[in-house]
Amino acid sequence: MNQPLLNHATQTMAAGSKSFATASKLFDPATRRSALMLYAWCRHCDDVTDGQTLGFAAADVADAPTAEARLAMLQSETRRAYAGEPMADPAFAAFQEVALAHAIPQRQAFDHLEGFAMDVRGEAYETLEDTLRYCYHVAGVVGLMMARVMGVRDESVLDRACDLGLAFQLTNIARDIVEDAQVGRCYLPTRWLRDAGLTRDNFADPAHRAALAQLATRLVTEAEPYYDSARAGLADLPLRSAWAIATARGVYREIGIKVKNAREAAWNQRQGTSRLEKLTLLVSGAGLALSSRAASPTSRPANLWQRPR
After folding, report:
1. Considering only CA atoms, which of 249, 234, 245 is closest in space to residue 290?
2. What is the per-residue pLDDT for 134?
3. What is the pLDDT, as a whole number, of residue 51?
4. Which of 82, 75, 1, 76 shows the shortest CA–CA distance to 34?
5. 132, 162, 177, 197: which sits with the fewest CB atoms below 10 Å from its CB?
6. Residue ranges in 125-208 assigned as alpha helix (H)
């Protein structure tokens, strides 16, 4: 075992995502190692694209490479990782180990990088379907890769894993609307903004908090069918993995509920869950994982957004 790589991945998870860090402790040791190292790569790519470290702005450097150049470097290093070349960067060394061990398709890694490219290009999202396409690239495909780490190969089960990623990202967008606007980003469908009498230039203004709260509620509501779909997929995961995923599902879903309930005050502080709430959701996640063993199979609703295959 490469302990330095695991230590790096564990520290990255602890600093970058307290929500998923709690759930990841429930995996069996081998799955947890791979999940942590996959997360470390995803976090690294996000930070490199934005010129950050674990989500926080780095010091300005006059001769720093452009976002386009940083993205090109990530693409190049990802190709090298798949080619089996020696990787000096811990995040890429970790990813290489996971990707090759679990036969993660190269297309999925590049689908994830496309999400960062969409940010670099400053894309706008006219419809909810356009927003869901973005959600797929930044989170849905991460669900696919994580599912492969858990041993999933069945395409219908992978659809459920992707759905959970979509739900997570819709929740993140609702929580971070104002924070994203501060760096010039808007993931809300432009059509929704027009219907609310808002524009991409003014939607985050404090004067429009009531209208913004309605749009955030709409996003949280749109996430629900995807959370439901993911719940139906728990039965097809190993029990400990099902427990971990059920817990992560509960934690993120609770964040969305808090955004919805806080209404105009949702962005006065970053919405999250307390340690006690996480422990409660951990217990309820165990119940969901166990009950999934006896649940009758259900078909995925045909009206849900379908990932590319």
Report:
1. 234
2. 98
3. 84
4. 1
5. 197
6. 128-135, 141-149, 155-175, 177-181, 190-195
